[in-house]
Specification:
219 residues, mainly alpha, 8 helices, 80% helix, 0% strand
């Protein structure tokens, strides 16, 4: 039984880390904190990691019920999250290099870390739906301890996010300012594609479900 639980824990952790992919959020994170000192960057990483944990833990505990309360399907949630990701990618593609004097909002950039870095870039629709699916699957199994293991897996994901963001200063020093601009625009293009994929997948899922429902409905 212990081996089975450890296997479920590892499966949930690997799945969530793979889908969250904190490395994809590095360009946006660096663009928001590039003018901050190392201590401020660590505080920003703390804020993002805590936000990711809160979002995913909330998805595990009450996410499915919240969507049901508002009558929102997983497909619609994916479309909405995909639109946010697409807009974030377009903003990265259009953004030009600025200095703290050029951008009056640079000193309060940490206020922008929750959206879009924590959500939807890391704790996005795919990650949230995966967390809710794992929680629902383990709850349906009837074993009391397993949902708590999903929460522990969420904690490991948050720790991994914190570690990646704390090491972002090393990445920043390695690639330089020009390299950051190139990477940010490339990742902006990738995010636009990811957002489009989420939107198209959500639309296909929505109409596929609707079509199946109409086919099963008696005439």
């Amino acid at each position: 039984m212990a081996g089975f639980e450890i296997g479920d824990f590892l499966q949930a952790t690997i799945a969530l880390i793979a889908i969250a992919n904190p490395f994809a959020a590095l360009p946006v994170f660096l663009s928001l904190v590039h003018a901050d000192d190392p201590a401020a960057k660590r505080q920003a990483a703390n804020r993002v990691a805590l936000a990711v944990f809160a979002i995913l833990a909330g998805a595990v505990l009450v996410g499915r019920f919240v969507l049901q309360l508002f009558g929102i399907s997983f497909a619609a949630f994916r479309v909405g999250g995909g639109l946010v990701v697409t807009l974030t990618g377009l903003d990265m593609l259009r953004r030009r290099e600025t200095t703290p004097h050029d951008d009056p909002a640079a000193t309060s950039a940490a206020d922008q870390l929750i959206v879009p870095v924590a959500m939807p870039l890391i704790a996005g629709p795919g990650t949230i739906i995966t967390a809710m699916t794992l929680a629902a699957r383990t709850a349906s199994g009837g074993t009391f301890g397993l949902p708590w293991m999903v929460l522990v897996a969420v904690g490991v994901v948050a720790a991994a996010v914190w570690l990646v963001l704390v090491l972002s200063g090393f990445v920043e020093r390695r690639i330089g300012t020009r390299g950051q601009a190139i990477v940010m625009r490339f990742m902006g293009l990738v995010l636009v594609a990811v957002g489009a994929q989420l939107v198209l997948g959500g639309i296909g899922e929505f109409f596929g479900t609707g079509a199946a429902g109409r086919a099963a409905r008696p005439t």
